[in-house]
């Protein structure tokens, strides 16, 4: 299950069927780019390549069957064939490949516990990651999104925004501290063994993806639990799999990144393919979840409030007619939060403004409804990993607008 992280819920069909639905999108974009025809994004022209509608996920925890199939193939590479797994767990093909495409959390946990309880040699998740290259094993819409991400920040935003396309068994969030950004992971399990095992393979897969995008981005890996040991020392798998030093017993399990690399163009990304797939992912979420227009409504109200010079979650809730707690629940279904949407809009507006006029910190602070220039500058540094002046210098160096 090494690739579960950037790989996300795509559809209740076979992996080959997912690829067949998405690869034409990438081929069409590439062909038009080569012909010099795709001067503007044309969603309508590409909509015909979108995957058909899929059943909505069930209540509770779930993981898309395409990820489970990938996990079973990884286990088979370690001498744990599919039929043996089913026999020893008491599961059926219907359990791991249900018609609606969503494998329930209880079944997922049974699969994982079986692997970890094998005697005489359990198979930790890190061992599966060591066997596969996550950047090549990803399939499905979210997998393609992550592989085409133009920058590490786009990569993170895609995981948060479209994570519901694969699973709701983990959440990612950012924490900032001076000179560093933490990508923290929180698992939706109660069993400490499952939590630690899943944190390890998920962070390892993310770390390897990030390493391919920018080899200077990852500084450390933090794990909230003690290490697996071999002969009294941390297991050599940690050094073998993670492309950065690993620290144990930390406040949270996370990847510690250099914030100045978050917006640096990726060596593997493709902005045009990424934007096209984002449009398809939005369509997929619209078809399978609560009314997607909620996000657009919240964005609209935030824009309106920013124009008035003041914005708050309470004001947005009042204009929409819901409580703060209910808004939080509704946005969580879409993998978002009020603060994430506010930061997204502020980020878009400030990029537009800096591309048109000279930087005026106080004016920008007023436009984005910050209390003062210092608050704006602090937010800008956390959001973009650099000062306004540094942003403008780097934009000139790369010859374009950084996002």
Describe the structure.
It is globular and about 65 Å long. It has 20 helices and 9 strands. The chain has 2 domains: 2-261, no CATH class; 293-398, Orthogonal Bundle (Arc Repressor Mutant, subunit A). The protein has 403 residues and is an alpha+beta fold. The longest helix has 22 residues, at 192-213.
Q: Give the low-pLDDT segments.
A: 1-23, 35-53, 398-403
Return the average pLDDT rounded to an integer. 79
Q: What's the gyration radius in Å?
A: 22 Å
Strand content: 5-15%
Write the layout of secondary structure elements.
Elements: H1 15-35, H2 43-46, E1 62-64, H3 65-76, H4 82-89, H5 93-96, E2 102-104, H6 105-116, H7 125-131, H8 134-137, H9 140-147, H10 152-162, E3 170-177, E4 180-187, H11 192-213, E5 218-222, E6 229-230, E7 233-234, H12 237-241, E8 246-247, E9 254-257, H13 271-288, H14 293-308, H15 313-320, H16 324-333, H17 338-354, H18 361-367, H19 373-384, H20 388-398
Parallel strand pairs: 5-8
Antiparallel strand pairs: 1-2, 3-4, 4-9, 5-9, 6-7
Helix pairs in contact: 1-13, 7-11, 9-10, 9-13, 14-15, 14-17, 18-19
Keywords for this structure?
5-stranded mixed β-sheet, two-stranded antiparallel ribbon, 403 residues
Brief write-up:
With about 400 residues, the protein is an alpha+beta fold. About 55% of the residues lie in helices and about 10% in strands. Helix 7 packs parallel to helix 11.
């Amino acid at each position: 299950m090494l690739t579960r992280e950037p790989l996300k819920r795509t559809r209740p069909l076979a992996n080959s069927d997912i690829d067949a639905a998405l690869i034409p999108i990438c081929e069409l974009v590439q062909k038009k780019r080569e012909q010099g025809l795709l001067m503007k994004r044309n969603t309508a022209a590409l909509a015909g390549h979108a995957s058909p509608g899929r059943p909505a996920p069930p209540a509770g925890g779930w993981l898309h069957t395409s990820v489970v199939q990938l996990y079973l193939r990884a286990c088979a590479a370690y001498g744990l064939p599919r039929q043996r797994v089913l026999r020893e767990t008491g599961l059926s093909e219907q359990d791991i490949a249900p018609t609606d495409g969503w494998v329930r959390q209880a079944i997922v946990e049974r699969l994982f516990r079986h692997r970890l309880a094998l005697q005489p040699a359990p198979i930790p998740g890190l061992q599966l990651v060591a066997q596969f290259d996550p950047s090549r094993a990803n399939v499905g819409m979210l997998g393609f999104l992550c592989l085409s991400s133009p920058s590490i920040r786009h990569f993170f935003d895609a995981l948060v925004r479209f994570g519901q396309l694969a699973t709701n068994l983990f959440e990612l969030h950012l924490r900032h501290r001076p000179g560093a950004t933490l990508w923290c992971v929180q698992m939706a399990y109660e069993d400490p063994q499952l939590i630690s095992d899943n944190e390890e393979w998920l962070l390892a897969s993310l770390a390897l993806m990030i390493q391919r995008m920018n080899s200077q981005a990852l500084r450390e890996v933090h794990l909230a639990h003690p290490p697996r040991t071999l002969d009294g020392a941390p297991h050599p798998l940690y050094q073998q799999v993670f492309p950065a030093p690993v620290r144990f017993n930390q406040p949270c399990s996370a990847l510690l990144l250099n914030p100045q690399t978050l917006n640096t163009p990726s060596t593997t990304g493709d902005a045009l393919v990424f934007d096209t797939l984002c449009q398809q992912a939005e369509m997929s979420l619209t078809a399978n979840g609560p009314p997607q227009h909620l996000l657009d409504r919240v964005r609209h109200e935030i824009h309106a409030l920013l124009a008035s010079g003041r914005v708050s979650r309470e004001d947005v809730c009042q204009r929409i007619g819901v409580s703060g707690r209910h808004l939080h629940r509704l946005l969580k279904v879409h993998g978002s939060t009020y603060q994430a949407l506010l930061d997204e809009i502020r980020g878009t507006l400030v990029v537009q403004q800096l591309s048109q006029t000279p930087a005026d910190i106080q004016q920008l602070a007023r436009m984005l409804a910050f209390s003062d220039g210092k608050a704006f500058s602090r937010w800008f540094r956390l959001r973009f990993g650099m000062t306004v002046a540094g942003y403008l210098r780097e934009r000139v160096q790369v010859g374009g607008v950084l996002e």
